[in-house]
Amino acid sequence: GINAEYMGVLPIRFTISCDSMNFVPRSSPALATFRHMQDVWGKGFVTPYSIIMRSQRHNGMMDKDFWETSVSLLNNISQQTDLPKTAMTGVMAANGTILNYDLAMYLLKADPSQPYVQAYQLLWNNSVSSNNGSAYISINTPFDPVGQKAVQWVKDMNKLLNNFGSKIGNNDTGFQYLLYGGACADVDAMDAVYNAMPVMCCATFGVIMLIVLVTFRSILLPIVFVLAMLYTLCVTFGVAVLVFSDLQWIVPVMAFSIICGLALDYGIFLLVRVREFRKKGFTNPACITKGVYKTGSIITSAGIIMFIAFGGLLLSSVNALNQFGVLLCFSVLLDTFIIRCCFVPALLTLLGRYLWWPWNAPPGERSEDDVMDDVLIEGTIQEDDQLLKSKECCLLTTRY
User: Fold this and answer.
1) HSE-CB of 329 using CA atoms within 13 angstroms
2) Is 1 a residue whose pLDDT tops 60?
3) Which of 70, 153, 174, 368 has a 20 to 30 A CA-CA distance from 9?
4) Which residues pair with 139 in a beta bridge?
5) Percent of the chain beyond pLDDT 70?
6) Under DSSP, is residue 2 helix (H, G, I), strand (E, B) or coil?
7) Phi, psi (rounded to 5 degrees) for 147
8) Residue 311 pLDDT level (bands cut at 50, 70, 90)
9) Strand order in 88-89's β-sheet?
10) Rounded to whole angstroms, how far apart are CA atoms 97 and 252?
11) 296/337 Cα distance (integer angstroms)
C-alpha cells in the first residue's frame, strides 16, 4: 500500500505523501484537533471520500438497471480494494449492507412512522439530488485518507471505476461513476507533475548542455556538467530517503530546479577560470589546479552563505519546509565541498587533452611549477604556501 515515485529520469525512488497536514505547524491547534478527531472517530472521518453516481435515464436513481449496476460496483470495490462494506454509507449501503433495488424502493415508499424507514428517507433526501439524477456514497477509509496508502488506493479506485465504466459502456447506458474527496485532488496534481518530470529533466539538462557548449565550445564539458549535477541530485535525494520515511510530493519537484541552478552556477565559476588559464598556455593539470585555487574561496563563501540562508527552513515547525531545507542545505554543502573541489577536477583531469575538443586550445607549455611563478609575478607571495597545498590536494584527488 505504500506508493513510490521515480524522480523523472533520475534513478531515485522514494515514498511520497499527499498529507496536507505537512504544511501545518506541528504546534498548531488545528493539527491537534485533526489528530484528536482521527483518534476518536477514525482516520477516515475527517476527510471522507465520495463516490458520485450519475444516471441520465428519466427515472434517475430509481432506474432498476442503474441501481443493480451500482450495487455491483460497490461489491467490486469491497472485494478488490479491501474496503469493508461498513466504510460505505449512502442510499445503497447502510450498516455494512448493500441494499437491493426492491428493498430500497420499499423503504422509500413505506410509512415514515417507522424509525428505520424515516432514517432511510432522510438519508435519501440528504444524499440524492432534487432531480434524482445523482447521488453520492460516503466512504470513511480505515486508513489515513491522505497518507501513503491513500495515494495508491485512489489510483486503484480510479482504475477500477474507469474499467467498470468501460465494461458497462458509460456512453450507451448513461451511467457515470466518479471519485472525489480525500487525497483525490492531490493525487491528480501529483500525477500530472510527475508524468511531466522526465520531459522537464531532459529539457533542463538539454538547455544546460547547449549553454555550456556555446559558451566553452567544447563537446565534453557539457557532459561533465550534467554528470556533476546528476551526482549531486542522486546523492541528495538518496540522503532524503534515509532521513525521511516519506516526502511531501511537491518538495522534490521544487528542490530539483534550485539544486540544478546552484550546481550550474558554481560549475560556471570554476570552468571560466580553468579556461582562462588554459588560454594563457598552462597545461591541463596546471590550469585545473589554478582554477580550483582561484575560485575556491568564492565558491566556498557562496556555498556557506546559501547554507545559512536555506538553514532557516530547518528551524521551521512545518514538516514540508524541514524536508525542503534538508534537501537544499545538503546539496549546497555537497556541491561546495565535494563536487566542485574533487569530483569535477577529477573528471576534467581524466579527459586530458580531449577536454577542450573541438576548441583549438593553445599549446600547454606552462607547467605546474609555473603556477607558483605566476603568483610571484602578481606580487602575492603570501599565497605561495596555500597554492602549493591546493595543487597537492588536487593532484591527489585526480590520481586516486
Assistant:
1) 16
2) no
3) 153
4) 49, 88
5) 85
6) coil
7) -90, -170
8) very high
9) 88-89, 134-139, 49-55, 175-181
10) 43
11) 9
Output the nine-digit C-alpha cell for 164: 467498470
Distance of CA 224 to the CA centre of its chain: 25
Mean pLDDT, all residues of the chain: 82
220 burial (CB, 10 Å; 0-12 / 13-18 / 19+) is: middle
Q: What 3-state class would DSSP assign to 59? A: coil
Rounded (to 5) percent helix, strand, coil in the chain:
70, 10, 20
CA-to-CA dists, residue 48 to 26, 61, 102, angstroms:
23, 22, 28
Coil/strand/helix, residue 10: coil
337 pLDDT above the threshold of 80: yes
**Residue 388: which H helix or E strand, with range?**
helix 384-399
Interatomic CA distance for residues 339 and 189, integer angstroms = 34
Tell me if the bond preceding 358 is cis, omega within 30° of 0. Answer: yes
Residue 288 pLDDT grade (very low, low, confident, very high; cuts 50, 70, 90): confident
Residue 325 predicted with pLDDT over 90:
yes
| Region for residue 273 given its phi and psi (left: phi exceeds 0; alpha: psi -120 to 50; beta: otherwise) | alpha
| All three cell numbers of 214 | 556555446
pLDDT score at 84:
87
SS3 176: strand
- The pTM (predicted TM-score) of the whole model is 0.77
Distance CA 21, CA 319 (A): 8
Give Cα separations from 134 to 1, 73, 138, 140 (angstroms): 31, 16, 13, 20
Residue 114 corresponds to which cell in the numbers above? 417507522
Per the document, the length of the chain is 400
Provide the pLDDT confidence category of residue 310 given band limits of 50, 70 and 90.
Answer: very high
**Burial annotation 150-188 (CB, 10 A radius, 16+ → b, else e):** bbebbebbbebbeebbeebebeebbbebebebbbbebbe
Placement of cell 453520492 in the chain? 136
296: alpha, beta or left, given left = phi > 0 and alpha = psi -120 to 50? alpha
